[in-house]
Amino acid sequence: MTRKARSEHCNAFVAAPIHMSMPTQSIVIGTAGHIDHGKTALVRALTGVDTDRLPEEKRRGITIDLGFASLDAVAADNSPLRISFVDVPGHKLFIRNMLAGAGCIDAVLLVVSAEEGIKPQTEEHLSICSLLGIRRGLTAITKVDSVDAARLESVRSEISAFLRGTFLDGSVFPVSARTGAGLDDLRRELLSLALQPVAYNRDHLTRLPIDRAFVMKGFGTIVTGTLLSGSIRIGDTLMLEPGRRAVRVRGLQTHGRPEEVVHSGSRVALNLAGIDVSEVSRGQTLVPPETLRAVSIVDVEAILLPGVRSLKHRSQVHFHAFTADTLATISLYDYTPVEADTCRLMRLKLHSPQILVPGDRFVLRQCSPAGTIGGGIVIDAHPLPNLKKRKCLAWLEAMLDASLEQQLFLRVARRGTNGLTVGGLAAETGLTQEALLRFIGCQSSQNQIECINGDRLVEREFLESAIENIAARLQAGANPLGLRRAELRSQTGLCKEVFDFAIEKLAREQKLRLNGELIYPGNSESKTAAHDQLELAAVAAAYNAAGLAAPQAAEVAAKLNLSEAEMRRLMTLLLRDRVLIKMGAYALYIHQGPLARLKAQISELHGQTLDVASFKQITGLSRKYTIPLLEYLDRERVTRKVGERRIVL
């Protein structure tokens, strides 16, 4: 296959039949090593693809940006295998590009020239791979055709000593890209590496960090990257973060092959609709809508490499994660500097927001002189604002050794009595809602987490505390008039879902009584409650029968044989439930039924004008009632006063 057909810069998205076969097992391997040690030549010898695609790379004979190639084979069971290579630059000036490539790889192919042996970028690249959590790979000694046997053995010994105790400690493969010597052995080991299962977590939300964006004539915007988790199908709508831009996937390819769906661990190219290439850049990430948002503050566990300078509070560093990089300010919890070869919890304030979730690896580089100083792992990408440092540090320490289920419990528990939604927990963890509900089910069975209405998660002890708080407030107040729901919720500070759940639970347990919007203590006498209902109904009936010509409260009290205090109490209840409506500043109370009929009657006069005289004629009421009623209609926006007249709206 030609370079044009194989490279990611090929004429992608041409009309072609979808390749329907056994699922392809794939692995993404990144090169690493010093400049001019033969990384690109080795990839070309293995795959037939020249990954140096830029004119500047051709002119200078060095790799400047990321290059991509693939090697396809068939396993013993006839299942297809694919190795995707990410070729990175070796020059120290282009370490930023190297980090963008290394951030998404599964394994590394460390390349060391037989002519030069271990060099500075060999050491830095291996440190970066270790910091990024890469634990698999191979080492190749290149250019063996240029040295004699004694020199080759000397370099082999040097490399073995250098790799001792690292994840690459083991076999070293001497090869020559020019003569082909040793390539068959290396290729077999690479394919063996591809057969080893990669621990992709199917429970994580889809994430595709973008490493390239370009325009293809006839198709528009194309982006490429390594799919970290999840899957993408043609027709999917995704969000570009940071930026909150919605895009639609118009086409999919893996190394020039059209696909309908791609899964985690694949090198993919996407044809995006709805966005111009000028609005896309390396470092952005594609995620499902309404899931992950770019963040600016993260709590991490970081380690400094041996021999580097100490890191002080409020130091500025370069932060690299996946294909993104930004400046970051270090915030140390105890303010004491971090010494070389030590591990610490710290907060990073990113100068530009990034998509990050717990477990993500990153690399730190000092600004001047430029150099890799350390890295670590994200613990919390959504730290609670205004939380005291002592409590925050204790929470982070608890998270370090906790299982996934325990971590979820800690995240829910720190939200207190209001908890958080399943969607909110998904945004914090990067896990799908389906996976979270599965894990939370275990917590619920152990009476640790309550899932309210299938969405709101609350730690059980906090929920019980909220319920007890509501019951105590009702008992303490012991107001015979009861408390309105809105007032009680305001006093407790609970979110609506938790408050409603607590109220319903207390009502089922007969620890409170509900009467419309009013809430009474559960131990109030039922006889008194029944008596209240009879008296309230009698007062309401008297006002309803009077219509708009409402009587005075004293008249109704005398008619029903009620004391002044009792009448005042009943009137308060009826006003709270809006059975009776007070006419502004007037000592006039009218039942809601006659008022509703009046509003409907006047509304039929839409566009006409009214004055006091015509309103008196319509209603048959005296001025004592007409003025308060007209002002009421103004407040209800049935009419609008213009001078001495009113327009019916």
Summarize this, please?
With 649 residues, the chain is α+β, with helices and mostly antiparallel strands. It folds into four domains: 3-195, P-loop containing nucleotide triphosphate hydrolases (Rossmann fold); 208-287, Beta Barrel (Elongation Factor Tu (Ef-tu), domain 3); 295-380, Beta Barrel (Elongation Factor Tu (Ef-tu), domain 3), CATH 2.40.30; 527-648, Orthogonal Bundle (Arc Repressor Mutant, subunit A), CATH 1.10.10.
- How much β-strand is present in the residues? 25-35%
DSSP helix count?
20
The largest sheet, given as strand count, sense and whether it forms a barrel, is: 6 strands, mixed
Under CATH, the topology of the largest domain can be stated as Rossmann fold
Characterize the structure shown:
The protein has four domains: 3-195, P-loop containing nucleotide triphosphate hydrolases (Rossmann fold, 3-Layer(aba) Sandwich); 208-287, Beta Barrel (Elongation Factor Tu (Ef-tu), domain 3), CATH 2.40.30.10; 295-380, Elongation Factor Tu (Ef-tu), domain 3, CATH 2.40.30; 527-648, Winged helix-like DNA-binding domain superfamily/Winged helix DNA-binding domain (Arc Repressor Mutant, subunit A, Orthogonal Bundle), CATH 1.10.10.10. 34% of the residues lie in helices and 27% in strands. It contains 20 helices and 32 strands. Strands 2-3-1-4-5-6 form a six-stranded mixed β-sheet, sandwiched between helices. Strands 7-8-14-11-10-15 form a six-stranded antiparallel beta barrel. A hairpin with a 2-residue loop joins strand 11 (245-254) and strand 12 (257-258). The radius of gyration is 36 Å and the shape is elongated. The model is unreliable at 1-21 (pLDDT under 50).
